[in-house]
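User:
I would dearly like some help making sense of a protein record. Take your time, and here it is.
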Amino acid sequence: MRIRDLFSGDEPVFSFEFFPPKTDEGERRLLETVRRLKDLGPSFVSVTKTGATTPEKTIEITARIKSEIGIEAMAHTTCATAGRTEMARILTRIRDTGIENVLALRGDRPRDQPIFVGPPGGFSYATELVRFIREQGFPFCLGGAGYPEKHQECASAEEDLAHLKEKVDAGVEFVITQLFYVNDAYFAFVERARAGGITAPIVPGIMPITNVAQIERIAALSGARIQPELQADLDRARGDDAAALAVGIAHATRQCRELLRRGAPGIHFYTLNQSPATSAILRRLRADGVGVNQPQL
């Protein structure tokens, strides 16, 4: 199943993102988490590529989710450190395992680089990777990343949007956004994208808060704003993970309800390999029937 086709239906597309664990036991627990979440009827899941794992581990877990658990799955692929020959090998491996969907990303710059420098014979931008995949004839349905509050390395929102347009024109078929906590950032981003000629589905990425210090670090790294009211709730919950989880579930549920009510085509949950918050939010949304038969942005 090509993920782009999922957005042609009347119901919102719900998806979950996971990262490859470092140990066999971690992998076992991850697959068990995915099996539990299957009862919620996700449209697809995605598996990231992290610096701590090889591309093969991402491919292996993605393929197992698709073949063993029976949920459509997408593999992330990054080109920050891979040359074209290596990238062709990775993409061939993905294709040969039966994976149809790929999220094409540049990836984070190496920690020893003050500014990103592409590898010799490699890629400097995700757009170049997308073009390479299309030119080489790989038959993937391609997703790409979008940044409602702009990529940290871009000088302006206009420059960032121009890069997104280049990616879509090169072959990206749907966009998943970076996490955000202020919905107005997403709606303004979609409005600017549509005005700029981008017609691909733009799926909001939501990371439920489960730990105050953790989410503050993530927000600082990604540039995601935390509005004063939410920050006040987090400050009151600081040091109490149960209270932070309750705040996170309540806020994310409100976010998702408004996003779907106002036409978002679905929700992509950044799970951090945990199921309680995501399960609670999605159960509430399904009980509400939010998003069903709503016109999409």
Observations:
- The mean pLDDT is 92.
- Strands lie at 13-18, 44-47, 73-78, 101-105, 141-146, 174-179, 202-206, 266-270.
